[in-house]
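Supplementary Methods S3. Input chains for the assembly prediction are listed below.
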Amino acid sequence: MKRITSTIFRMASVAALGLLGVPLDAQDRAASPGLDMLELRLQDDRVLFNAQVKQPVDDDLLELGRLVAMGGAQSGGSAMACFTCHGAQGQGDGSGAFPRLAGQAGWYVYKQLIDYASGDRPNKVMSGIAQRLTEAEMEAVAVYYSAIDAPYRAVLGQINGETLQWGGQLGAVGSAERGIPACVNCHGPSGTGNAPSVPYLAGQYANYMTYQLQLWREGVRDNDAMNVMSSIAGKMTDEDMRAVSEYYARVRPAERVIAPLDAPMAVTIGD
Amino acid sequence: MAYETLPKTDVVIIGGGWTGLTAAYELAHTGQRCVVLERGQKRHSVTSFGAPEEHDELKYALRYGHMQDVKKETLTFRNSRDQQALPMRRLGSFLPGTGLGGAGIHWNGQIWRPLPSDLAMRSHYEGRYGAGFLPDDLSIQDWGVSYDELEPHLDFFERICGAGGYAGNLNGAARAGGNVFEGPRSADYPNPAMKQPISNTLFGQAAERLGLNPFPMPSANVTKAYENPYGAQLHPCTYCGFCERFGCGYLAKADPIICVYDRIKDHENFDIRFHAQVLRVEKSSDGRTATGVVYQDEDGSELFQPADTICMSAFGLWNVHLMLVSGLGTPYDPETRTGTVGRNYAYQTIAAVDAFFDDSVSTTPFMGAGALGVVVDDFNGDNFDHSDLGFVGGGYIACKQYNGRPVSYQPVPEGTPAWGGAWKHAVRENYGHHGDMVIHGSSVSTPENYLDLDPTWTDAYGRPLLRMTFNFPDNDRKMSDYVMNRAVEIAEEMDNVTSVSSFNLAAEGQDYSIVPYQTTHNVGGAVIGTDPQTSVVNRYGQMWDHHNVFVFGACLFPQNLGYNPTGPLMGLAYWTLEHMKTDYLQNPRPLMDA
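Predicted C-alpha cells for the full assembly:
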C-alpha cells in the first residue's frame, strides 16, 4: 500500500511538472527535499534513532556497531559479546532473558544501555556489559541493531484461542472495566512501536514481555520516560500479562517497503 | 403531548458531565436514588478515546467528533438588540460537548481557582478605588460566596483530578515559584507540576527578569500515578499533544468518566439513561417547586421522570435554555432591566502573542499537553493597580505548548503570505522555533449582553432556540489590549527571538464573531447571588423561585474570571452539594429568605 501511494504521488508531481514545463512555486525542490525523499527517509531504519547522535550515522558507525556486537570494543570488549545471546542478527531467543533487538528503535536501545550502566534498569548481566562500553559504542551498537533485520523464529508452545483473543483485545482497546489503557495507544497499531522511545512488541518473545511486565508491576523496572508502564502493569493480572505477550509474539509487522534512494521514478511523463 | 410517567425518584440530574456525575456520586452515597439523563451516548475513556484512532485531527479537532450536534440544538446569535438573530448552523466560537462526560472529555485540563477578590468583584473594586469607580453600564456583582467558603471544595476537586502544580500561597505564606497572587491553599497540589519545554522555560526566565512572577500552569494532565479520593487510578501523562477537542485514552487527563462515573456506576442508588434528551422541567400547580423533567428517549417517546429534587447540570447555555422553555424563574428583559434568567451572560477575551526563535532554539511542539504552560498572573483580576487604566479585570499570560498537530499548528511570522510557496517555506522554517503565548482575559457583565428565547427559530424538538445577544464590552477590549501588550514585552525580552507578533480577538472596533474558535468558557445567564432581583439562584446554588431546583455550572458566574471555569465551577458544585447533603435534603425549603 505504501509503495502504491508513493508511486501515485510521484506520478502526480511529475505529471504536473511535465505539463506546465516550469517548476511549481508551491514546492521549492531546490531548497529542500521533496515529499518523496522525506518519505524514503522515514522508511530508513537509521532514522529511527531520531535523536542526536554525536557522530554521523554512516557506514563507519554501523561498522563500529557490528564490531561491538561481535565483542570488540575500546575497553577490551564487553566480556560477553552481544551476539552470544542476542544473535548476530539480533534475533534473540525465547527464554525470556534475551529479547529480539533486530530493527528495534535505535534511541530506545541506546537508552536501555545507558540505564543498564547506571542501574536505572537493574540487570545483573547487562549492567556489567553496559558499563564496559563507551557512550560512542553504545550509540554505535544501538544504531547497528536498529538497522538490521532478522527472520522471525517460529513461536513455540500452545496457547488457547480465548487467551489470544483476550490478549488481542487488551492490546487493541484495553479494559474499561479495569482501567487498563490499550497497548496501541503508545506502541502503535499492530504493536510496531513508536520510535524513538517506544519499542515494538510485534514479534518480541512472549516470555520476555511477560517478565518485563512483572518487573514493572513489582517496581523493579521503572525506566520508561514517564513511568507509565508501572501504572499499567499494576492493574494487570498474570493472565493478562501472559495473554497480551502471547498475542504480540504472534503479530508480525507489515512488510516494510524500502526503495533505494536512487530508485528511478515508476513512471515518467513528458520527456 | 401525552407522555408516560415513570416511577418517582429522589433526584433527577440533567446532564452526565463533571457536575452531573459528581452530584450523582455525592447524593447517591447519602442514600438518594439518583437518575442521570444524558442526551448523548455512553462511552468510556479507555475504549473510546485510545490512540491511534483518537489522534485523528481532522475528525475530532476540525470536524468536531465529540461536540454537540447543532442540527438538533443550537442557538441564534446577534451582536445587539437592533439586529435580527440568526441560527448558528455550525460550531465555531465555542464547542459544547455531548455524551457521557460532556465537555469534560475534550477539555485541556487547566484547573484554576478564582482569586479571592474575583468572588467579591463589586465590593472589592468599590472598596479599593471608591464607590463610583465602576461605570453604571457594567452589571458586575459579588458572587455571594467567599473564597474561604469555597476553598475546601476547590481543594477537593483538585484531589479528584490529581492536579499537578506548585502552591504559591500555602496557608497564607507566599512561595516563590507558585502563583503568589492566589488565595491561600490549605494544602499543596496532590501532584508535582508538569515538566516544561524550552519555549515555556525561556518565557518564564524573561518574565522573571522583568520582575514578574512566573509559575507552572495548574494541570489536570496527571504527572504521576495517582489514586483520587473516589478510588480512581490515574496514570502519568505522556505529553502526546492530543488534549483539547480529544478524549484521553491514557487515563492521564482527569475526566468525569474515569474520575467519577467509573466509581459510581455500580452503586445501587445510581441510574443513568443515555440518549435521553431533556425537553423541559415541569412545575407544581402552585409553581413553587418543580415536579420532575420530561425527556425524549432514543425511540422518540416522551417520558416524565418525577423527582423530589432536580439538579440542572447541562452545559451552562442549555441550563438557561431549559429554564426559559420551562418557565422557571423570570426571564430577563433588557428594556426594563428586570428579571434574572438570561441576565449577565458573559464570555472571555482571547489574545495571542507569537514569538519566533532563531535556529539556536529548537522547540518540540509535538510534545505537548493541554495544561502545559508557564504563566504570569501579575495582570489578572485586580493583581495590578487599575486606578488610571480605564478598565477593570485582567487575564493571565501563558506561554503554552498544547500540541504541534499538522493541520492546525502552522505558526508563521507576521507578514508571511497566507498561502503558496513562501507560506510553506515559512511553516517549515518556523514549526520548531515558536513560542506560543495566550492571554486569557476576564469579561464583565453588562445590561445589553444577555440570553433569551428566539421569536423565530425552533430546535428539532419544537422548542424556541436560545438567543444570544453579545458583543465585547469596551472595558474588555481595553483590558485585553493592555494585557496583550504586557505579553509582548515579555516576548521581546525572551532570548534568541527574531520576531514577535500579536493578535487581539477582542480588538476595539471589531464586533465579536461567533465563527472563529475562541473559547468554550461561556458564563452567566443563571447567576448566583444574595439578591433575588439580580440572581437566579441563592448563594447555595438553589433557585430562588423553586427551592427544589439546584443549578450547576458556569452559568452561575455573575461575570467571567480571567481563568478557565472548570475549577471554579466544580468548587461551587461541591459547595452546593455539601449544603444539599447536610441541610436541604433533611428539611427541603428555601435555604435563604428571598
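The longest strand of chain B covers residues 302-312. Chain B has one domain: 4-586.
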